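**Tokenised fold:**
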Amino acid sequence: MTTLQAVLVTPRLHLLPPHTGLARAMLDYQVANRQHFAPWDPKPGDMFYTELYWTMQLRQQALGWEQGMCARYLLTLPEEPQRIVGTVSLSNIVRGVFQAAHLGYGIDHSLQGQGLMHEAVSEIIRFAFDDLRLHRLQANYQPHNQRSAALLRRLGFVEEGLARDYLYINGAWRDHVLTSLTHPAFDPARMLA
């Protein structure tokens, strides 16, 4: 991608592109949600809970945008612009005949159940289909993650199957439900290479 990654705005959130100035806020977000994310994320390495790690990660994520590989966003509330309250991302962006990406997301444990994740993911879907001109988004979740299942269902994602031993998370191989959403008005004449 040769253009700057845009800030996205919803009624209650600002979706900010990653930059190293938010490394401390990202560390604070991860520390505050350590227990909350443990069942869903890979076991963190030794440096995960350091500002240096998040400085490097945010730099890498910004580079991923420049290379057209991902679009990651950090969620903030307008009244608390220096506090990260969630993340939403498009990763593994593939062009050519596929025109697809993987969707990922997470929200601060204290803000669950307020519709903020639905708001953020709705905006990233719009961005993926309208701005990035993707045809397909894929989102996967562990079968017992009922919040993710309900969110994706409300957003129109369709269940495609179950992948056994899909990801090594929290000390074991975990099954994942595979879902997808396709752009109903995708125009092949406007595909990006």
Observations:
- The longest strand covers residues 80-94.
- The beta strands are 8-9, 14-16, 71-77, 80-94, 100-107, 136-141, 158-169, 172-182.
- The radius of gyration is 16 Å.
